[in-house]
Amino acid sequence: MKNINKLLFILLFIIKPFYLFSIEKEPTVHLQLLNSQIAHQIVSAAVDDCTQKGYLVSAAVVDRNGNLVAFLRNPLSSPHTIKVSQRKAFSSASLRTKTSEIATRRSDLNFAPDILLIVGGVPIQFNGNFYGGVAVAGAPPEIDEKCAQAGIDEVSEIMEFAD
């Protein structure tokens, strides 16, 4: 009986490491992405909100990797708002925070490629899932941020039930 216990004990130490390494892990990661309809609703609501406040703006939505997904520009907005809104959206997606929260704290990021630390970029997150960023350009920066948030708020009810 003693020998059987020793044998079982030894086998346990020999087999256990193989078992730990043989547990298969999924080779892929599940990502949730915004569909184009939701992205367009966000930019449309953001531009509409700023237009109602009397500002001529552009709005951009980028995905989690900073790639442009949706863009809308008031035809009367200044041409610089195109790139500014895209770079603010890229910054909020890349850094996963509002540009207003990092604009004053992180001067070291001023030289990072495509990062624009001007208030107006907001990350898009619902139910703990990160989707990207939205930004508005053309109004005063604080108004830009409010309009970007209005775009997110427009789809929040739909996204709360998405899974």
Describe the model.
There is one protein chain. This protein has 163 residues and is α+β, with helices and mostly antiparallel strands. The protein has one domain (36-160): Haem-degrading domain (Beta-Lactamase, 2-Layer Sandwich), CATH 3.30.450. The protein is 48% helix and 17% strand. It contains five helices and four strands; from the N terminus they run ααββααββα. It has helices at residues 2-22, 36-52, 80-95, 99-103, 141-160; strands at 58-63, 68-73, 121-126, 129-137. Strands 2-1-4-3 form a four-stranded antiparallel beta sheet, sandwiched between helices. Helix 2 crosses helix 5. 39% of the residues are buried.
Structure at a glance:
By secondary structure, the chain is of the alpha+beta class. The protein has helices at residues 2-22, 36-52, 80-95, 99-103, 141-160; strands spanning 58-63, 68-73, 121-126, 129-137. A 4-stranded antiparallel sheet has the order 2-1-4-3, sandwiched between helices.
List the keywords:
163 residues, alpha+beta, Beta-Lactamase, 4-stranded antiparallel β-sheet
* Spans of at least 5 consecutive residues with low confidence: none
Terminal Cα separation, in Å? 56 Å
- Assembly type of the chains comes to single chain
Q: List the secondary-structure elements in sequence, H or E.
A: HHEEHHEEH
Kindly state the mean pLDDT as a whole number?
88
Q: Helix share of residues? A: 40-55%
Under the CATH scheme, which class?
Alpha Beta
Would you report the number of β strands? Answer: 4
- Structural class estimated from helices and strands: alpha+beta
CATH topology descriptor: Beta-Lactamase
Cα radius of gyration in angstroms: 24 Å
CATH superfamily: Haem-degrading domain
Tally of individual domains:
1
Overall 3D shape: elongated
CATH architecture: 2-Layer Sandwich
Strand order of the largest sheet: 2-1-4-3
* Strand content range: 15-25%
